[in-house]
User: What shape does this take?
Amino acid sequence: MINHDDYVKINIGPSHPAMHGTLRVVAYTDGETVVSADPEIGYLHRGVEKLGEHLSYHQFIPITDRLNYCSAICNNVSYEMAVEKLLGVSAPEKAQLVRVIMMELARIADHQVCVGILGVDLGAFTPFFYLIIQREEIYEIFEHYNGARLTNTFGRIGGVEADLPKDFEQRWKKLKEGIARANEETDKLLTHNRIWMDRTIGVTTFSAEDALAWGFTGPCLRACGVKRDLRKDEPYSVYDRFDFEVPVGKYGDVFDRYMVRMREMEESVKIIDQAFKLYKDMPADAPLMAKVPKTIKPPAGEVYSAIESPNGELGFFIKSDGSDKPYRIKIRPPCYMVYQAFPEMVKGEMIADLIACLSSLNVIAGELDR
Assistant: This one.
């Protein structure tokens, strides 16, 4: 046991800029070295799962927006797929393609925020502007599709509400060039920058064995060298029809978490290109919705359904009692599993490295606290 009286107690957050307003870490330090760090969560707890018991299946869709609000569309689709599994229906192929395109756009936007903020937290401000400009262009597409930018309430149980906008191809061509340009500039500014390398390489390394033991998924797990991606390993929607790579790191440090996300953005561009090509080949009058009753009353039973969200495995457990409201909803957020290992990751590191670690984990308080 650590005798905390022997060390200096430092409160980091929730008002510290690097803690993004809702996280607090109580750190005990020996000089600049972190002896222990106890994270405190719950500043953004809104009882999301309990709300699900009092709303109809349709009404809960906007609530899922507020989980990972950097990529709300992925939350929407994950929940909708869980309800569809409970109903025993599947969205039409054209709707699946629209979902994939929008989810991959959301993945790119999420990674742009993570990499950009990681740079800001470590004192490299310029890449943030390159990346955030392109994120805004993605939000323009979202807004053009359904009128919302951040909390999209995208899709419906059984499919999607509309075709892609008629000018999507033109917008995507321009956006694709912008994403490539922003990533190239970010790579030039950071990847081989001596200061960046010193601040990220070998910082808060985590082994593959430890990552698996703590329940890591997503980029943080792949950064440790584990090639695990639900889009490949447990294909859902129409992901089994696309050719893409699963980037992995080796040491599980801040640098690997950064590089995995940079490369994943490139792979998402490839997926969108392939999905849009298939979409264009679909008949104009191809259905976008499965036959789903207006008032959804699934048979009694329970399901678990998960997708590969930008941060990892995002799953919904739903239990039905046959009524128009879920009897129980339980969310499996990737952030929670990653953040529980945070004290282990920063033990023995410098205080400044604690900030770098947290930012590279991309902890989103909305899904962490729920």
